[in-house]
Amino acid sequence: MKKVITYGTFDLFHVGHLNLLRRAKELGDYLVVAVSSDGFNAVKDKRCAYSCEDRCAIVKAIKYVDEVIVEERWEQKAEDVRRLGIEVFVMGDDWKGRFDEELKGLCEVVYLPRTENISTTSIKIEIRKGDGAKG
Ligand code: C2G
User: Fold this and answer.
1) Is 2 annotated as catalytic?
2) Active site residue 25
3) Could you give all domains of the chain from N- to C-terminal order, each with its CATH number?
4) Choice from 94, 103, 109, 121 to test ligand 1 binding pocket (greatest atom count within 8 A of CB)
């Protein structure tokens, strides 16, 4: 069984996240997703709309996802890869080159093109803009 892992916040889950998880799963047979904890998001200076618990529940419900773990710190990736027997580490290409060194010799590192024109930040901006609108 070829195990794949990816990491992320996955707040306000959207089609960019879905495309990433679908393509990550296509690279193996079993997909582990490490969802950033609320504490780690504070480290990443990211304010989330959804709690870690809710973000984990949503990601776990995605049909491409086989297992969800929590990402507590930047440095846990190599340890996760070893502990879980991961063969492929996948991230969107906004992270291109960021994790190659720390995972060298441990697993394949793949960066996939991001989905254009969608992000959690852009969703928040759109909602704020439409605040006065009915509905
Ligand atoms: N993503 C994407 N296309 C988008 C938006 C996001 O492919 N339009 C990808 C990102 O590249 C990332 C994943 O979806 O691989 C999750 O994105 P975020 O929730 O924004 O996660 P991030 O804050 O990048 O956290 O240790 C790694 C970090 O935890 C990554």
Assistant:
1) no
2) no
3) 3-129 (3.40.50.620)
4) 94
> What are 72's two structure tokens?
């507590």
Give the side-chain half-sphere CA count within 13 A for 129: 6
HSE at residue 11, side-chain half, CA atoms within 13 A, is: 18
Cα separation of 4 and 32, whole Å? Answer: 6
Half-sphere exposure of 16 (CA within 13 A, CB side): 20
What are the pLDDT digits (tens) for 56-75?
999 999 999 999 999 999 99
pTM of the model: 0.95
Establish whether residue 94 lines the binding site of ligand 1, counting it when its CB lies within 6 angstroms of any ligand atom.
yes
Whole-angstrom CA distances from 130 to 29, 38, 48, 127 are: 41, 27, 19, 5
